[in-house]
Write a structure and sequence with these properties.
It is a single-pass type IV membrane protein. Belongs to the synaptobrevin family. GO terms for molecular function: SNAP receptor activity. A three-stranded antiparallel sheet has the order 2-1-3, with helices on both faces. α2 packs antiparallel against α3. 63% of the residues lie in helices and 9% in strands. By secondary structure, it is mostly helical. A hairpin with a 5-residue loop joins β1 and β2.
Length: 203
């Protein structure tokens, strides 16, 4: 469940919009708001902890706080929807905003969008999660096929290696035979002449 949403300018940490709620379902709402504002200030100074958060550099930071069990994919999709609409409606005014919460009217869109994302079991949100699962499945299938392809290539290399080994043995045997025949051709006439000479001496 989406609890808190804030949008701020990264360059100076100026809060641009806050999703207005009575926060009855959120204990210590003010404490969390202060933490979010401190985070925006740190981002504006370039101080962040990459190991603890995902930050994409840009002019605006979109932040939401959800229940721990809320699917991350839906939280990011929720922020993506806010980003697209906020930049479409207020894009050219972002840099010139001089006071905090200058785009408070955007809260109406935040509330409508938040209602769409509140229940993770709605058909729309299940479809988004299924799309994500399908994408992951496609990537895994592609990876498995690539691994199998590599396995097949390794098998082919192994077969070629075996073939080369057996062919090199055949080549070595033929080379030995050719050497033997060359020796016979070279020394056979000499041996015959010597044999004839020896026979003549004996007789």
């Amino acid at each position: 469940m989406v609890k808190l949403t804030m949008i701020a300018r990264v360059t100076d940490g100026l809060p641009l919009v806050e999703g207005l709620d009575d926060h009855r379902d959120l204990q210590d709402a003010e404490f969390y708001k202060q933490q979010v504002k401190a985070l925006f200030k740190n981002l504006s100074k370039g101080q962040n902890e990459p190991s603890r958060m995902s930050i994409e550099t840009g002019r605006v930071c979109y932040l939401t706080m959800c229940d721990r069990a809320y699917p991350k994919k839906l939280a990011f999709q929720y922020l993506e929807d806010l980003k697209n609409e906020f930049e479409r409606v207020n894009g050219i005014q972002i840099e010139t905003a001089a006071r905090p919460y200058a785009f408070i009217k955007f809260d109406t869109f935040i509330q409508k969008t938040k209602k769409l994302y509140q229940d993770t079991h709605t058909q729309r949100n299940i479809a988004k999660l299924n799309d994500e699962l399908y994408e992951v499945h496609q990537i895994m299938t592609r990876n498995v096929q690539e691994v199998l392809g590599v396995g097949e290539k390794l098998d082919q290399v192994s077969q070629m290696s075996s073939r080369l080994t057996s062919e090199s043995r055949i080549y070595a045997d033929k080379a030995r035979d050719l050497n033997r025949q060359a020796l016979i051709r070279k020394w056979a006439p000499v041996a015959i002449v010597l044999g004839v000479v020896i026979l003549l001496f004996w007789s």
